[in-house]
Amino acid sequence: MTPTEMEHRIVRYGDLRPCKTAFIDAHTPGSDQKENFTIIGGGVSESPDQHVHIALAHGFNIGAAGQPPKCRNSLHNHRTAEVFFVLKGRWRFFWGEHGDAGEVILEEGDIFNIPTNIFRGFENVGTDYGMIMAVLGGDDAGGGVIWAPHVIEDARAHGLVLGNDGKLYDSKQGQTLPDGVDPMPLLTADELAQVDTPSPMQVVGGYVRRYLDMVALAQSGTPCKVIGAQGIIRDKPGFEIDLLTRASARTQPHRHDRPSVLMPVKGHWRVDYEGGSATLAPGDTMSVPENLDHTAVPAMTGEAALYHIIGTDDAAGPTWKG
Question: The domain containing residue 70 runs over which residues?
């Protein structure tokens, strides 16, 4: 593969193209300044304005959310996995239909494998613009987002209506629902009763891992298996995630039988591949083609850590409890 061909599989942090109208809460005060990014795959955006950087199927989606301080993402649910790691800033994640069932604060490098079938939201509680990177299960990311009823009602009060076709219609721009399209129905009481409300101990103890703890585990010379059947978060969401550090970087060329993704969180990383090389910085995302020999090692002295994501044959469905 030539360097020119590979550059088309690298999305640089500075080249990310945001969408500010991706979801139903785009006009709701407190959520109207967020930016959504779809890096790999179709994502779950409800807006035709969403730019997709790499459309190739990987078995999972890669996205990101950027938000200024005090901006929040409204409470929603997914049918498949949603995993976040913090790239920049400090973030509060909260869950429950009204966001009052529990919360956890994540710092840079921390990772959160949010269980399926719970309402979740997140807020930038830092002092500067923050960025979190996301991995969503499945090529179609589970068919979209399920919103808490009050989110849909709040959005309607500010001019945005979600149709049952999964698309947004903005009355502020003179848009109305097309013939044959009805508003997305609110979840019924029976449907709401089927949504899980785990305790803070269950969520934080089972699905959150701290960056420094993972770095310590990766100092043994092998990557820290973060998410997987044998991971420190035991789950099979249709992909696996490892954390590599300087001590656990693989210096021998290797390949995978399916595409993989490299996402630095600390330091610069040099990726040598058959045909060329590239240097990645935090916030960059690189899709490595299947069956391509490559290595990834820190390019400079100092702290270095990188998340590696690869698909598996497991179904991208409800959280696995093995």
Answer: 15-208
